[in-house]
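Session log. Operator J.P. requested a structure for one protein chain; no other inputs attached. Running the standard single-chain path with C-alpha cell output.
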Amino acid sequence: MHVEQGQGTRGPRQRELARTTLGTGFAAAVLPVQAQTAITTDSDGLVAGEVEIPVGDGTMPAYRAFPAGLRKAPIILVVQEIFGVHEHIKDVCRRFAKLGYFAVAPELYARQGDASKISDIPTLVSQIVSKVPDAQVMSDLDASASWAAKNGGDGGKLGVTGYCWGGRITWLYAAHSPNLKAAVAWYGRLVGDTTTLTPSNPLDLAARVRVPVLGLYGGADSAIPVESIERMKLALTANTGAGAQSQFIVYPDAPHAFHADYRPNYREQAAQDGWKRCVAWLKANGVG
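Structure written below.
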C-alpha cells in the first residue's frame, strides 16, 4: 500500500502517532456485513487511497479520493461513524469524488487506538471513543482541510458531512470553522451527557453555528428523540448568522444509521433521498 506523507521531520511523538494506519475492510464491531445491500464504488478515474496528514504532533492517517487530473476541486471532509474510517467511509469518499469533489476522511481516533480491531461497541466506546477530545477533533479537521487545499482541493469551497458520531462532530465543526461553507449532519446526537473532553452538545452551540447545516434524521431513531430535534430547531432561531438557515429532514420510519448500506439499519429510500439532498445542499451553499 502506498502512503503519501506530509513534509517535515518527525520526533518521538510523531513516530508514535504515525504508527496507526487505516484498517482494511469493515470494522470488526459491525460484522457480518449485509452483502446484498452494501454499495461498492470503484476508483476508476480517481486518485484514491491512504495518505498521512501533518498535524501538530505528527502525522494522521486519512483516506482521500478525488478525480484524476482535476485541480481545485471543492473539498468535502467526511467524518467517520463511531467505527472509525473503515470501508463504508472510504466508499463514501469515492462517491463524492465521482461527483467532482476532493473528499478526505481523517482517522480521528489515530492517537487513541485502532477502532477496526475492536469487536463490540461498549469496548470501542470505553477504550477509544470516550478518550477522544472534541478540541483535538476540531484541530485535526482544520489540518485536513488545510492539507486538502494544498494537494488539489479548493480551500474556498469547503464542506463537511458526518455520520452518527461524525454527525455530532459535523455540528460542532459548523460552529468552529471560519472557512466552512456548508455542512450536512447525518443522525448526529444533539443533546446528551458532557465531559471534560466533550464539554458541549450541538444544542449548546446552536447560536454559534456559522454555516447552513442540513440535518438528516430518522423518526424511528431510538438514540435521538425527535424532541431533541425540535429543541435544536428552536435554539437555531437565536442564531443571527448563516446558521439560522439550517434545515432538518426527518424520515418518519427510518432508524439510526439508515444510510449505512452495509448494516441491517439501511433504508434504501431514505438513504438515496438523503444523499441527493446532501449533494444539492452542498452545491446550493457554495460547495460544488
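Operator note: The helical segments are 12-18, 87-98, 121-127, 134-150, 165-176, 226-236, 268-284.
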